[in-house]
Amino acid sequence: MKLPLDAGGMTDRDGNSKTQGTGETGSAGAAGWHVFLILYTCLILFPIAFAVSNSFKTSSDAYNTILELIPRRPTLDGYRQVFAKLPFVRIALNTFLIAASVTACKTLTSLLAAYSFVFFQYRGKKVLYFLMLITMFVPFTVTMIPNYLLITQMGLRDNIWGVALPQMADVLGIFLLRQAMRGIPKSLIEAAKLDNIPDLKIMKDIIMPLVRPAVISTGIIFFINSWNEYVWPVLILKSVEHYTLPLALQMYISAEGGTDFPLAMAVSVLTMLIPLVLYLIFQKYIISIFAMTGVKG
Amino acid sequence: MKNLTLEHVHKEYGKTTVIEDLSMEIREGERLILLGPSGCGKSTLLRMIAGLEPVTGGTIRMGDRIVNHVPAGKRNVSMVFQNYAIYPHMTVRKNITYGLKVSHLDSAVIERRLDEVLDMLRLTEYADRKPKDLSGGQRQRVALARAVVKQADYFLLDEPLSNLDAQLRMHSRKELVKIHEKYHPTMIYVTHDQVEAMTVGQRIALMNAGSIEMLDTPGNIYHFPANVFCARFIGSPPMNIIEKVPYNRESLVIGTSRVYLPEEWRAEVVDQHPDSTYTIGIRPEHLKLIRTGLGEWERQDQDADPEGENASSRIRGQVRYIENYGNQAAVYVRPEGLAQDLVVMENSRPPREGELVSLKIDFRNFHLFSPEDGKSLGWPAACIREVSEAVMEIGGPDEYPAQHEYVQHEDISEDSAVSGLFPGSRGRRSLPAFSRPGL
Amino acid sequence: MADQKKQSVLGYVFLIPSLAAFCVFMFYPLFYTVYLSFFDWNMIQPQKKFVGFQNYVILLRAPNTWKILGNTFWYIVILLILNWALPYLVSFVLSFVVGRMRGFYKSALFLPSIISLVVGSILYTWILNPVSGPVAILLKPLGIRLPFWTKTDGWVIAGLCIITTWKTFGYNLIVLLAGISGVSPEVIEAARLDNVPLRRIFFDIVVPMSSATGIYVFIITIVQGLQYVFTPIKVITQGGPNYASSNLIYMSYHNAFTLFKTGTASAASVLTMLLFVILLLLEFRFVERGVYYEN
């Protein structure tokens, strides 16, 4: 996903060169857009700063100085309460276990399926791929009742594995890894075949190293998505000790705002902490792999 | 036995037939070129030989062994791919030795071979770099090294130089020939570039639409093209072909000019294939431009009358357009009464556009084709002898093209042409088209 | 050929884990839901009662359904403006108008996409709190009073859309940026040399040349947007006040897990899926027809 990197230079050049012609200067236009974009970016990032700052305030400060981003009397009270009022470690561990197992499963099944779609020839391949792809357009409400019944029958309701089990495979992962594998020139494989290199070794020595970045970023996406997941866990998990972070967080919401403001902000911060750290580390990978999802083929 | 035999090879993808029925023999240790326009099936043929593409029908034999169902890895072939196909995540060293290591070759042997190819292809100092830190030319050499290090009996190359710039390409051509002469594998080289074909090949199989139009030495393909396709494909600018040229009273009627056909052509070629029209071919370098003063044709030419007895050997025309190459110029002349231009190579001072000129055909280098199927009708024995001798003089077909790329050919002088000798018979060691820049 | 057989077998073997998961948790439920939509059931009764199209009839006769369909329409309209038109414009501006800081904007605007919508919901209930929230405090001196949006028809949809947009804007922007990067800068340069105003460049050049991606994002904005908005509905309003914030997706959920009517819930899901299928067919049609493709 490369962007036309010299487009910026072009803007300034052209902007200057046609200043006289139209009276509209490109650079002034660009400056206007910068103002808009910066304001918009601030607006988008404000909630995060808002959460972080209020989570370190005392209850009264939070209500009285809600607009101040720097807490006057920084305190960890909010966080202390989180651990006091909730089985927080348990909840975080639940979330992590679900996310990790879902990520591992989805990555493995997606890798295998993508490999199958790209490197093997067999009947019905296109139809199967199309069938899988089209499930991206199936709303979750269509599968929620039967899956709920299925998990209940299996005795996995109110169990974190009941949350993880239906998420063993993922279309998005298959799609992304298939794209990545299709990007490997066919001739690389052919060159290896000419050297009589066994298929397993081709997979291990050539294909895997080349798709590793895509696998890592797909895995991170799986992890973050599962970490944030709300809809399915809320159907399955009933008791607080089995909750995941978004479910725990939900207890602190009400339409009126709820009662314990710094506590709610602290849980919010803790919930978004892991995804934020992952994002800060793997930002480039994540953005570039997401950019691929709009590409057909 | 490292020869390769194709018998009635047939290939289709679904319903489209790529190769109809192709048979040929590739000799042990030769450099054979598969040349043809894109889509002619040459790459498919190479990939079938490599075992990367199944054969629909017919047999491929390597030595005595039928290899139709032998997987690629067991055919003892090495291949250089057009996009090089070097592993981007491995260093140069790893790229070259990977195949050998997997096949459990003795590590001392691997080291020795590695050092040898690294040295031969000037890659020693880059051995520990990754492909992304190499230039295009270096990558190409890594691909070459990886194929060479295997020391396979069959050395296949699929347009290996097409991603290089002109300078590097010229250099790499020589390198390829050198490598071949060191190991003498049976080399099959696919290209669409006639210069590459001429300079690298000992024999060229000129392909078109899935079949072989001609299989011969570069010299013979150039001088004795088997049909109109071959005549047009080799040489640049391409041979002037005029279709349906009426023939009567011992002369060809080209536009309004009547050109007398020499005795040996009539006796040895035309009389064997009597017809009322012929397709004729003359290479631009075998046409002689005669300038006759501004605005006037020569007196005797003006008198010439297409219906009359006075046939001359000249075609009257007007200069329409000039392409200047620096050391020579391609002059586009529109013969009077003809609907197409004839191209003439002129290496002295070119005429001006609009100038009236005459063209003189050199009948030692002239081609007659059947008007029906475009096949060559042959040449008079004297022509064949003379042209062949000229080719022999410059060292025989084997080394003929590769060594004479830069020869200037100022010998194609007006004198030799006018006097009717084989034009530039000594100077024409390099085919004029090939030494021009920008080809 | 032996090789071909091996290929087929291995191909299927590699596909089995995914395929099995899809069959059990996607394809089978899909058919089961369609089946359930023809029965009257409450998930507990041992017997399901076949009622034919009754569930659909009940659903379409209920006045709430029409209100909810209307809500769904407004959700779609607002999400398309905030989450499709706006990022389309921003991606154009980022690609061709502003040069510097593109990477920064991209990273910053994408950031909320990795944060849970529940977090988004809780943050926005505070930020947009009509009495004590920062927005209300800031607007008070200007004499503007925030409506009690969670309790007000109309405003509630807008509020929930803003929350959803916060999360999904970045993703759509990234995808659209990738689509627009297929438009070569030379084309834009040529237009600029001809003094074509930016507005025309956007509508006459960039949009047609990136329309494949544009249509894709258009569709997912609807398909994913209606599902994304479920989370804030569920955690903030539970579809209220009086169904004013419910949409097709929430209606299914509400019928199934609050009212325990699997029949109407399934019927609503099937109708939702039909809507999405129609969108998908439209996409195929559009993409197949006059859409500009780089290759």
Automatic annotation (TrEMBL), chain C:
The chain crosses the membrane at residues 12-31, 73-97, 109-127, 155-180, 201-223, 263-282. GO terms for biological process: transmembrane transport. The keyword Protein biosynthesis does not apply. Its main location: membrane. Signal peptide: none annotated. Keywords: Cell membrane, Membrane, Transmembrane, Transmembrane helix, Transport. Gene3D superfamilies: MetI-like (1.10.3720.10). It is found in: Cell membrane. PROSITE patterns: ABC_TM1 (PS50928). GO terms for cellular component: plasma membrane. Residues 69-283 form the ABC transmembrane type-1 domain. It is a multi-pass membrane protein. InterPro entries: ABC_transporter_permease, MetI-like, MetI-like_sf. Belongs to the binding-protein-dependent transport system permease family. This is Sugar ABC transporter permease. It comes from Porcincola intestinalis. The lineage of its organism: Bacteria, Bacillati, Bacillota, Clostridia, Lachnospirales.
